[in-house]
Amino acid sequence: MADDNFSSLFDLLPIGAYRSTPDGRQLRANAALVALNGYGSEAEMLKAVNDIATEWYVDSGRRDEFMRLVRSQSFVSDFISEIYRHKTREPIWIREHAHAVRDSAGAILYFEGTVEDISAERAAQQEIATSERRFRAMTEKAQVVTVVCNRDGLITYASPASTTTLGIEPHELVGTVVFDLVHPDDRAKDEHEFARVVSGTNSGVETVSLFRHRDGSWRHLAAVGNNALADDAVRGVILNFRDVTDARRAEARLTILATIDMLTGLKNRGAFEAAAIAELEVVRAKPGRCAALYFIDLDRFKLINDSVGHAVGDEVLREIGRRLEASAPSRATVGRLGGDEFAMLLPCGDTPSEPAVIAAGIVAALSAPLQIGDMAFAVTASVGVCLFPDHADTFELMLRYADLAMLNAKATRRDAFRVFHSSLAVVAQDRISLVEELRAALLSDQFEVFYQPQVSLVDAELTGLEALVRWRHPTRGLIAPDTFIVLAEDVGLMVPSVKLSPSALLPTQRTGRAHTVALSRSH
């Protein structure tokens, strides 16, 4: 059961996950980690990796530190390292969480952990750090703008740095009021802080406001004031300004990186969940109103990645994201949950049929022919819909029920939608049970092949045999393939078909071709 739980978590994680031995051998790698390392499948990656310590970390000492921490604490958290994408040798930065699994005697059997690519976040942080170093250097070279004002904010002196910072010559600033340069949204705040400087009650902490540049743009200036009205050498309030525009922009970019899905540009899972919960609170405050959550899953998307590669698969996901955003109503919240799963939350309109109409529109928009380079794809999607508060009154429950409705649509016909109904929970449980029974059936040889003759209508001669697989279930009896084949495909129990000729079965008969569906025990 522990392995099953591990496999389930493994398959669902949108970030890399692994299991490895203390001596550096890779035992398992989920799809996200396989993709992060530049491989096409787990088997390919496991075959290629021999020693994590020497092949993965840019600084082999990080592996030593990792081992030291895990041996002493049994876990590591927020372990940040520079590593290589194993196949391409491209250096990237990761954040790692891991723990040790020990036997009854306390010996480490293996490590389990997650790996998240934080290269973009790291680059943004480095950009901010670089920007801050640049600003400090500018300050040291007297690039900080210094002005002296009277108690009313009238400028009596401005330093030469005003030319480079604001595009305004010092003599042009003298005789003007400093607040006239401030953005209207910040003026009241700055006037209040200036009054505190004059009264000697300010905290001495910088305040950041927008100041108008000569070219009409706005610059973020961090200011701090010092009351020198009583100083005969100054007789004014000294204000020092430094330009933090680039740092603010870098911070904004970092915020964006934390909230968007880098592949599609939609909200990522965390940002979507936060926005959806906030929207549900707004709807909850309006009695009689409702909202619909749409769970969207592409049909057989794995075939695209397996057949033409992840690069093309990523382009397909980008186009699906564009279509979903373009077809969504303006008041909708749209996000990518991970993999080929998307979601949309939309407050209900006045028409009871609106959720079904919108779901049908999503199915139609995503199923239109899709062109990537010189390749054409027919991508379809299954959509599940859950209503707030009719079906569920929390986001978590809505997502679960919408997922159940989507699975019902996928199991029934694909390229369709379903609105949640309480009976779907029973259907979902039956599906889960059937999957487990299907796995057990592979191990206990419960599948039988029936051979159906193909006879020519012209001369009544046997032209071939059609091999038909049946499942002889111990309690359900003989089960036809339409009950379990699609399910086997969905959970990855299928392997390529086997081609048989009747001559191999009946040597005296004419050769023809028949096909059998093959089920794999390896899963």
Verbal overview:
The chain has helices at 2-12, 31-36, 42-48, 52-55, 61-73, 119-140, 161-166, 170-173, 184-199, 245-259, 269-284, 301-308, 310-327, 354-367, 395-412, 423-443, 481-490, 502-505, and strands spanning 16-20, 26-29, 75-84, 91-102, 108-117, 145-149, 155-158, 207-212, 218-228, 236-243, 291-298, 333-338, 341-347, 370-372, 375-377, 381-388, 417-419, 447-455, 462-473, 477-479, 494-500, 514-519. The chain is α+β, with helices and mostly antiparallel strands and 523 residues long. The chain has a five-stranded antiparallel beta sheet, with helices on both faces. A five-stranded antiparallel beta sheet has the order 7-6-10-9-8. A five-stranded mixed beta sheet has the order 12-13-11-16-17, with helices on both faces. Strand 3 (75-84) and strand 4 form a beta hairpin. The longest helix has 22 residues, at 119-140. The two termini are 15 Å apart.
Topology:
Blueprint: H1 2-12, E1 16-20, E2 26-29, H2 31-36, H3 42-48, H4 52-55, H5 61-73, E3 75-84, E4 91-102, E5 108-117, H6 119-140, E6 145-149, E7 155-158, H7 161-166, H8 170-173, H9 184-199, E8 207-212, E9 218-228, E10 236-243, H10 245-259, H11 269-284, E11 291-298, H12 301-308, H13 310-327, E12 333-338, E13 341-347, H14 354-367, E14 370-372, E15 375-377, E16 381-388, H15 395-412, E17 417-419, H16 423-443, E18 447-455, E19 462-473, E20 477-479, H17 481-490, E21 494-500, H18 502-505, E22 514-519
Parallel strand pairs: 16-17
Antiparallel strand pairs: 1-2, 1-5, 3-4, 4-5, 6-7, 6-10, 8-9, 9-10, 11-13, 11-16, 12-13, 14-15, 18-19, 19-20, 21-22
Helix pairs in contact: 6-10, 12-13, 13-14, 15-16
